[in-house]
Structures are given as structure tokens and as C-alpha cells.
Amino acid sequence: IAGITQAPTSQILAAGRRMTLRCTQDMRHNAMYWYRQDLGLGLRLIHYSNTAGTTGKGEVPDGYSVSRANTDDFPLTLASAVPSQTSVYFCASSEDNHSPGNEQFFGPGTRLTVL
Amino acid sequence: GQNIDQPTEMTATEGAIVQINCTYQTSGFNGLFWYQQHAGEAPTFLSYNVLDGLEEKGRFSSFLSRSKGYSYLLLKELQMKDSASYLCAVRDSNYQLIWGAGTKLIIKP
Questions:
Q1: With an 8 Å Cβ cutoff, is A90 touching chain B?
Q2: Is residue B76 over pLDDT 80?
Q3: How far does the CA of residue A44 sit from the closest CA of chain B (Å)?
């Protein structure tokens, strides 16, 4: 694989169900991010990880959890899905989060619908 | 609060030039990024500015004025494939990106 992959591509989920969105990168980037993108709004940061073993809360963390057991993987879990979590979810990575010009690379996204 | 403003939508003609503006108010400033996002796809990096002035990359240029909290993306010789949304993002004092809602650019033949 090259870059960032996400799975699944899309999912329809019943409210109250638990769901894990997967994200894997092979660029050995230290920093990884989860965003949600909703119509008319900018990308909003859910959680981030500056390096393996550490995570932090972004702008909209409620209802979501993450883990970063190794450099490559950064799964996002919805413990009990609600309809307001219907969105497109993007995983991204960068070499680190502070060097000038370090751009973020994005995965293809997961389109999640909670009914 | 933190705020990034961009026009919602713009229309331009193939072969022409278009300027997409972005104004920002953030807690701290550690650089401004422009990304392109085609419908149904992931954002892809276009440009980065941290110092005042113009950065040119082929048909695309980006300008920054930190004192005015202002940037623009200039697209020259527009092609149909440039139809996309253009996202402005500012890295704040916590080194996190704050994103604008994006400008949808429609190119007409």
C-alpha cells in the first residue's frame, strides 16, 4: 500500500451500535488525525496523535475515542452511534505537527450514515 | 473564537484567472495552507505560506498578509479539471489546523 488507507469506504449503521473506522499509513509519519466533514462546515478535528502512544482531543471529540498502539494505525471508535455522527470521516497524517510546511496527507474517507 | 472565512462559491471561465480569498482570526499563527478537494475525494495539498508575500507554483499562486489576516489563492489559465472546492486552513498556536468551509469553484467552458 502507498499513503493512507481507510476502511470501510462507506457504512450504514443503526443508532446505538458500536463502530470502528480503520486508518493505516505506510509513510512512517509521526502525527495522525481524524476529521469529520459536514456540508457547509470546514473539516473539524476529532482527535489527533502526535506520536505513537499519545493521543489528544480536537474540536469535536465527544462520542469518539482513538488509540495509537503503533506508528501505522489510528482507529477511531464510536462507542454508541447517534444520527448526528452521520458524516464523512477523513484520516490524515503528517511527518510531525510542528515543522514548517509539513502538509497533511489524507485518506480517501469513510462515508458513515447513522439511522 | 477562531474563524476562517471564504466565499461559498465562485464561477469562472475556462482559460481565465480567478482569485479565491481567505480571511482568518485565529489564536496564533503558524502557517496557512491551501488544499484542493474534488467532489467525493480527499483534500490534496496545494500550497503553504508562513511569511508575507507570494508563493508561485506553476498555474497556482498563494499570497499571505499576516498583518491583515488575509490570504488568496490565484489560479491562472483555468482548466475544466480545476472545478473543485478550495480549502483554506490556518495552523494555530497549538499547531492544529483550523479549516474554512471551502470555496466551490465552478469552471464554465
A1: yes
A2: yes
A3: 7
